[in-house]
Specification:
Layout (H helix, E strand, L loop, with lengths): L2 E11 L8 E17 L3 E8 L13 H13 L5 E7 L10 H16 L6 H16 L7 H6 L2 E7 L2 E6 L6 E7 L5 H6 L7 H20 L2 H7 L6 H4 L6 H9 L5 E4 L6 E5 L2 H17 L4 E7 L6 E2 L1
Parallel strand pairs: 3-4
Antiparallel strand pairs: 1-2, 1-11, 2-4, 2-5, 5-6, 7-9, 7-10, 8-9
Helix pairs in contact: 1-2, 1-3, 2-3, 6-7, 9-10
Length: 309
């Protein structure tokens, strides 16, 4: 195989209480990468579409090409040459893992082209290099679920320890992306460096409860655990109408509600597709009343990760 086209999914990181350690993949939106093997050694990013000129074409500065370079260096294969086209099919800066989806698509593509030498879990450290380039910190709560599919827990970063969690059946994500600017780097800088012990204890209990709820297929427990006393109170200030968006979700059948990643996207976990669609419509109507445009995505949890298209 000399050429491949890959789709990689968006992700919901943190899942409210699991800052930097929890995330899950969705079926839409996502990004696409075209990659081909060529005779001339090196990694070249030839084209980017859908980014309105916001992303660098420099192979060392773009998350897709840079992570592929790290991968080939790990294999000690400087002789391999690849050309890459990145097609952005999801909004940049949405809190849905835009850089993660691009990076994961590229890594999955190169891994396939050279013989599928590493597992999805083994590709995660290379994807983290892309996240470090994108936002200054190589977290895995986007890239791990994007590569592995489903819900993933990052138990430890040093050493990296990833746990695939079960996904309850008939679980849907109702996602709304308000078109306001919340850069990931800025959102991270708002977070307090120190927290009160009582708040930390509350957060630990909620993370444990959420993981337990997934294993037990207990959606009531999942919902009770989707509370964040550390990060959300600060970050929600950046999202217009956040409290009303939460009320609309919870009063219309959502299991839980929160910020996706660093925002501004918000998401609700819902037990059926029709309820998810109803919630996104109500939330978009509210944002329109605030003169804010928005996009909505209703998706089941993506269990497979990236795929060849």
């Amino acid at each position: 195989m000399k050429e491949i086209k890959v789709f990689a999914p968006a992700t919901v990181a943190n899942v409210v209480c699991g800052f930097d350690v929890l995330g899950f993949a969705v079926n839409e939106p996502g990004d696409e990468v075209m990659m081909r093997l060529v005779d001339e050694p090196g990694v070249r990013l030839l084209k980017i579409t859908g980014d309105e000129g916001r992303l660098p074409l420099d192979s060392a500065k773009n998350t897709v090409s840079a992570s592929v370079q790290h991968y080939l260096k790990h294999l000690n294969r400087p002789d391999i040459g690849v050309e890459i086209e990145l097609h952005k099919k999801m909004p940049i800066g949405s809190g849905l893992g835009s850089s993660s989806a691009s990076t994961v698509a590229g890594l999955y593509a190169i891994n396939q082209l050279v013989g599928n030498l590493l597992t999805a879990k083994e590709l995660v450290p290379f994807a983290m290099k892309g996240e470090e380039l994108a936002c200054g910190y190589g977290h895995a709560d986007n890239v791990a679920p994007a590569l592995m599919g489903g819900f993933v827990l990052v138990r430890s970063y040093e050493p990296l320890d990833l746990i695939a969690l079960p996904t309850p059946s008939n679980l849907f994500a109702a996602i709304v992306y308000p078109e306001v600017d919340v850069p990931t780097k800025d959102a991270r800088q708002m977070i307090k460096a120190k927290v009160l012990l009582k708040d930390a204890v509350t957060q630990w209990g909620n993370v444990a409860g959420l993981v337990s709820g997934l294993f037990l297929n207990d959606m009531d427990l999942v919902g009770r655990s989707m509370k964040d006393v550390l990060i959300e109170p600060t970050r929600s200030i950046l999202i217009p109408g956040f409290d009303t968006l939460r009320t609309l979700a919870m009063e219309n059948g959502a299991v839980g509600f929160g910020i996706s990643g660093s925002g501004p996207s918000v998401f609700a976990l819902v037990k059926d597709e029709e309820t998810a669609k109803k919630i996104t419509k109500l939330q978009q109507k509210h944002l329109a009343q605030l003169n804010i445009r928005s996009n909505a995505y209703v998706s089941s949890v993506n269990a497979e990760g990236p795929k060849i298209i």
